[in-house]
Amino acid sequence: MRSTISGMTWRYWAVLALLILSLPVQPQTETAQATWVGVVTYVVDGDTLHVRAMGGGELHKIRILGMDAPEICQTGGAAAKQALEKRVLKRSVTVRLQGVDVYGRDLATIFLSREDVGEWMVRRGHAWSYRYQRDPGPYGEEESHAKLLGRGLFSDMSPEYPHDFRRRYGRCM
Which fold has domain 35-169? Predict the structure, then answer.
């Protein structure tokens, strides 16, 4: 005879638990999917910066979505940081938050006026379009164009993708 809990079998409860556990988790912060304006106060590297919300609000460490710049200790890393600093440091930007990464950084698309900063970085050859498996990512076309013109990172015949660099050497200290 099967064990029951209030007339329901253990199998029913197990299936119910699996269904609940498989539901997508929604971010618990009120900043998820929010759009706001702030000033860039610091550029960490070619794809990470600090933005303070207008009116003296909270400081956010933001990882720019859609692109991957070289590590700061990697060839092209310092140039990517300098390009991003020159473009956005101490300027007002619009931040479109998408979530938080495993390092606690906000994940966002950054706009300077109406220009997508991630797209600008890739188009100038300072970063790769962030790809997943065979998907060229959101800025695949801009990356192809930068490669064709030999811009920035792509002036080197075989620049190392940051993911591969981190796998081989770890993160920069």
Answer: OB fold (Dihydrolipoamide Acetyltransferase, E2P) (2.40.50)
